[in-house]
Structures are given as structure tokens and as C-alpha cells.
Amino acid sequence: MSSKKPYKLLEGLTSVYRIISTRPRAGKTSLGALLTRELNRIGVKPIVILQTGSSVLEKFNDASRYRHAGASNIVVSNPEELIMITEPMESLEEIIENISYYTPLVLVEGFKGANIGRAIAIIEEPGEIELTSGEPGLWYIVSNDLEVVETALQQGFNALLIDEAEKLAREIYHDAITQISSAINIDPALCGMTSKHEVAEKLLKGIITPLQCIETRGVSIVVNDKPIILDGKLANALIGVIEGFLSNVLPASIKPKNIRIELK
Length: 264
Hints:
The chain has helices at residues 7-10, 28-42, 61-69, 92-99, 128-132, 146-154, 165-183, 196-204, 232-249, and strands at residues 15-21, 47-50, 73-78, 81-86, 105-109, 118-122, 138-143, 158-161, 221-223, 226-228. The chain folds into two domains: 7-54 and 85-180, Rossmann fold (3-Layer(aba) Sandwich); 186-249, no CATH class. It is α/β, with parallel strands linked by helices. The longest helix is centred in the middle third of the chain and has 19 residues, at 165-183. The chain has nine helices and ten strands. A hairpin with a 2-residue loop joins strand 3 (73-78) and strand 4 (81-86).
């Protein structure tokens, strides 16, 4: 497990959407690709996690030889792409936490039954609705069959045709902003913005990261009543200087919790 602080699921700054189905070859990849394309048009580039029952090394014979020889991590690179193959992780949560320092939106293909994020279920026949109703976080039912959609709506579920992927992508976008906004507990002005919605939208689009804004909530500088935004490295450097100074002037028994410095 990474030693980095996982913003992901612990602080609600990552939104996860699982595409599941009751049958194999139901079109999960097709729907996921459509959603990815539509989200890109909005300005959001999701991370995608695919669950498969076959070996991911089948296409990479040389990498497979290294993996079976005992290598823990393998990077396959060419001028057009880079793929990293690593040791297996136990849960979807662990995978998400180790993808990167901060991942605003994750599309997951598979992991049926995982109690993480919202589930989008692909259903082919009305009778499958009941089978899917107990899925953790069931959010939307999608289908190529209009009868399935109408039945799901009558039963109180959110439902769309697969052809309405553009609308579903918009729903994901607005839902993710709502989730992230509700998890932000700082004054947006500390990020140079006027609302939590604006902060959430820029986090989701990758314009800012928690390292640049949210994580710096432990230190702020205001000059002539105007907040100065520090990135994570500068904030940590400033904290280190202040804590080092105080350790030389305060008794060891005093542990400062809130520090205020004014220069006039």
C-alpha cells in the first residue's frame, strides 16, 4: 500500500462509477468507451479500471517472462504508450488509492458487488431488474431495450437507454461535482475562488489538485486582505520553518495547535 495520503475515498474527493452487468458480453466496454468520450468533451479525463478473468499478460510475452521470474513491477514502453504491470491488489479501494496521488473520477468496468461508488447496471431483460436491485450503490439502469427502461422507471430507478450515453455522462459530471463539493470543508477563497462548486469543478477537470489547494488548508497567508495561494511544497516548507523556530523558543511541554503571525 502506498504511504501517500489517499484523498480518494477517505475524503470524498474522488467519484467512482462502476459499470456492471448480469451477463458477460453485455456491452460494458462499449458503454464505458462512450462515457469516456463524452466526459472528455466536457473536459474530464477519467481513470479507467478494467476487471478481467483472463491474464493481462497474454499480449505481452516478454513482460510475462519477467513477471513469472519474480519481478514485482514491469513497465512496457514504446513511443506511443506506456503500460505498467504491478503485483495484484486485494480490493477496488486499494487499486484506486494506488493509481495516483489524486484521481478525481474513476470509471470501473466490473467489480460487481463492491461497496464503493455508484453502480451503473446494464440490463437486457425486465426480469433482470430484480436480480440487480440489491447491488451496492445502484444508481442507474441502462439498456438497449425500451421496455427495460420503462419498467425500471416505473419501479423508481434512474434509467436510460444506452444510446443516451451523452445524457448519462452529463449526469455523472454533475453528480461528481456535487460529491466533491460536499467533501470540501474550507473557504473557497483560500483557493482563490468564489464557491465550493467552482473548486470542485476545477478539481474534476484537473485544473487544480488537492496538492495545490485543498491540502494547503493548514496554512494560509493573507496580504492586504487578499489570500495568497501556496502549493503543497511551499506550504510544507513554511510550516517547517515556523515549527523549527517555535521549537527553539517554546518549552517542550507546549504543543502549538493554532499559530497566528501578523506583520504590520
